[in-house]
Model the fold of this input.
Amino acid sequence: MATELVNLSNELAAAAERASASIVAVHGRRGIGSSGIVWRDNLIVTSSEGIRVEEGIHLVLPDGRPAAARLRGRDSGTDLAVLETDVGGLRPLEYAGVGALKVGQLALAVGRTSNTGPIASFGIISGVSGEWKTWRGGTLDPFVRLDISVYPTLSGGAAVDAGGNLIGLVSTGLSRSSVFAVTGATINRIAEKLIEHGYVSHGFLGVALQPVVLPREVQERLHQDAGIMLLGIEPEGPAAVSGLILGDVLVAAGDQSLARPEALAEFLQRTPVGQTVRFKVLRAGVVQDLDVRIGERPSRRR
Done:
């Protein structure tokens, strides 16, 4: 048994060492460092939570060299940011196959600090499932939860399997109680948009919502029991500009029924900003159609 534990310990240490060759220290927040993962040659992906400045971002590379970095873009919805450095030749991590991930498998969170070099924390994969909508309006595909103790400097680092292959980017900014791994599919999808535009567009109406039960005659007509009432409307926001008013009950957007606020959030996720959508609205007991132009969530741009 002692030999088996020693062998396991050595294998985990080797996995952390392999991963650390692709991990940088990131200084983008006053007083608190974080980590980042080499994504492509001179491009680094890290946690958006760890970047609080637009300029003056510094890295410590895997070989100990300091390097300046520029922010190419960020998306708080998925807690991702992309940094660019003039130093080339950095080695990306190999991705683990998400399909092979199982609840209970061992996992390591690997990061880097300027002073001590590589750091790691040990735990397990506690959840794996399909697409998941974050409370900040982003989408993770798929969803991987980690049961790992994460220090601030590990945020933005790599969650790796026992072989040192990348499971995803360590994020503590998507939940107050859980640690997530933002997997390769999400990183690639979001990072490409950040490099091209600097931000990810998120559909926005500017409303506060409350689910309500529809009147019986409306239920029978629309074949649904509930809708979502507008309890608040942002002045000059997309909803207000399009003519929605307090007390309106949204019951459908295009051909999708809206029986709960989450349904609207999901609709906005996949609807391009700037597109005009015909909403079905219950107003003063009468169901009517209203064209609404989808806006862009202002706080997501940078």
Residues 203-300 form a domain with the Pdz3 Domain fold (CATH 2.30.42.10).
